[in-house]
Amino acid sequence: MSVRARPTSPHLQIYRWTVTMAMSILHRMTGIANYAGMALLAVWLLAAALGQDAVTQVNYIFGSWFGQLVLFGFTWSLVHHMCGGLRHFVWDTAAMMEPDQREAIAWATIIASVIITLLIWTLFVWMA
Amino acid sequence: MRESVITTETIANPKSRYGSANASTRHFITQRVTGAINILFLALLLFIVVRLAGQDRADVVGLLGRWWIGVPFAALIANVAIHMRNGMRDTLEDYLAGSMYRLAMLLNTLFCLAVALLGAGAVLKIVFWG
Question: Which NCBIfam families would you find in this protein's record (chain B) (predicted)?
Answer without folding.
Answer: succ_dehyd_anc
